[in-house]
Amino acid sequence: MRQFITRWLILTVAAGVMVALLPGMRAVGEPPILGIAAFSLFMALINASIKPVVHLVALPISILSLGVFALVINWLFMELSSWLAFSLFDVGVVIDGFWWSVAGSIIMSIVSGIVSSIIGE
Known about the structure:
The chain has helices at residues 2-21, 32-49, 51-57, 59-64, 68-89, 98-119, and strands spanning 25-28, 92-95.
């Protein structure tokens, strides 16, 4: 449980940086960190549960498409996280399109890697 909470906090920091840097992403909530935290909670749940299975099943398609299908999967997971956060908590992160999601995924990967290495996770 401690590892999941740590991962959630790392993703919250990464999502905060993503929202701050990208004009195509907006946090909805008062204060906005609640929307970012709800979004990153569902991202952490998806990353821990179904993402490994989906990426494994989609591996042949990802290889044939030279990794483009993996971007589509990441976009779908970000949209799903956003939808779940809005549906359950009425806060979240609004994503304006596919390419903003791709840029957000790249930023979240870089920032979460940096934060993870700093805290030793």
